[in-house]
Amino acid sequence: MLFTSYEFIAFFFLLIVLYYLIPGRYQWMLLLAAGYVFYWAANPDYLIFLLAVTVLTYTAALLIDQSLVNQKKYLKNYGGEMDRQAKKEYKALQEKKRKKIIVWFLIMVLSILASAKYINFFILNLNSILQTMGSGRQISFIDLLLPLGISFYTFQAIGYMLDVYRGNISAEKNFFRYALFVSFFPQLIQGPISRFQDLARTMWEPHPFRGKNLQNGLLRVLWGYFKKLVVADRLLIVVDLLLEQPEKYCGAYTVIIMIFYTVQLYADFTGGIDITIGIAQVLGIEVQENFRRPYFSKSLKEYWRRWHISMSSWFRDYVFYPVSASRAMQKISKGAGKLWGAKAGKRLPVYLSSFVVWLATGIWHGASWNFVVWGLLNWAVLMISEELEPLYVRFQQKFAFYGRLPYRLFQVGRTFLLICILNLFDCYEKVSVTLKMLFSVFGAENWKIFADGSLLCLGLTAADYIVLAAAVFMMISVSLIQRRGSVRTRIAGMRYPAQAAVWIGLFLMVLLFGKYGIGYDAGQFIYNRF
Amino acid sequence: MEELLNILRELHPEVDFETEEHLIDGMILDSFDIVSLIASIHEEFGVTINAGKILPQNFNSAKALYALIQEIEEED
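YS: structure for the whole thing
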């Protein structure tokens, strides 16, 4: 049951009616049931994974929380009789026990993710090693089920478990309430990866019906459908065709692939998140924003602060900081400082920890080498930019045009181009093909495709291109207006005929210009597969 | 406190760390700055700030950060 299916729309409207008809204290139970029905409808077997992740993280958090409570109680009762050293030793012992719990449960939860997503990648690499060593033996691949959105809800649940371990939040005692946090249906299959302290409690509270929530939420949902059906699924037709035959579609076509795929990815993912946030708002629940106009970024570093924010901040808080702040890293830093100077000593933890983060980010996106290379290329560009920072500062001080609009536009264009190039590594499973495609741009002799009508042989008509251009223009305009505040608040402040025109116009555009596949079943969201 | 202010000024000479209270919320310090800061604090104060303590409320001002350092020193 995809967001773009008729079944989902029927499911959603039925849920809204029921949600506001039943007493507020039962609403969260309805949402829990809805989450499980939604996931069951995608594939009943997926529920095993969801349940396993929920039970494991719930149990781990309870055990850790209990240990923390016991420690406090013990110190309260007997702390007065203990000296400083005894207290320190007691705390260290308890901490060691909690560490053991978190490590074991992390291994179990990550094993579920690995068994669903990465085992064939592991076999593939093992087979390559066996072949290189001259062994004739090859291990057969396993026919696996990859549950939709498993990376999203697994990471959300791990984040909760780690926050309890750090003592930043208390564990939730009610299993069903916690199960809702993991299975909240609008964000179950493509995020955002929410934090327990931001989301959970607002889900359990009663939510009386508010017209404003319904209006704002539905408008956001409609805007999400517009991005997905009018833009992303229209671009998908060209992108899919071009990716199928890299030998035929190279040179100038590579430029089309890079730009179309980058715009498609934006419309697809941000559209899906618009639908998620909009649905939650209709239900009176606030889900955090996952994007802040990322393609307006002036550098790759800024882009990663504005694109898929919940994932970047997850990796920052649960991978980057623990690795960089670890005692081992402090030792490395000290050693490097002695060898190469204080500056290098401070930079090394940043570079090494970032390497781990980008390796993990690449693997999170998919079980293949192209994603690993994509992650490490991001890392390389970020680190080179970091090293060149003093040069940029000198440049800024020397030239007056820095900071002016034309230069800022150049920076935005340059960053967009860089993102387009990096995104090409998403497109082909083989890195060698991606590199071949990239190099084919230089010395390409087929630039005439932009003028000789070749673009009309890629599955889209001239009318489609006009719709695309208008829709992209609308997306850019909305983003520009957003910089000065919420677009929906502006619309709500308009006179009723103008508001009605916006609603009807947007609805008709989705209905008339949306690209629907065979049997009116629109394409799956790209990020669902993660 | 003065040692901490010197470390912070080294990172961002343009910021008035004695009065600024939105170092994280105002995106003045990014994650790279925080890691450099943790390394410098470790060197200067001999204190290890673990990942669980890297929260906006502990890093939003020099005052809050200094309080955190003192808290860890006391615990140790």
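YS: worth flagging: Chain B is about 55% helix and 0% strand.
IM: good catch. Also Chain B touches chain A through 21 residues (CB under 8 Å).
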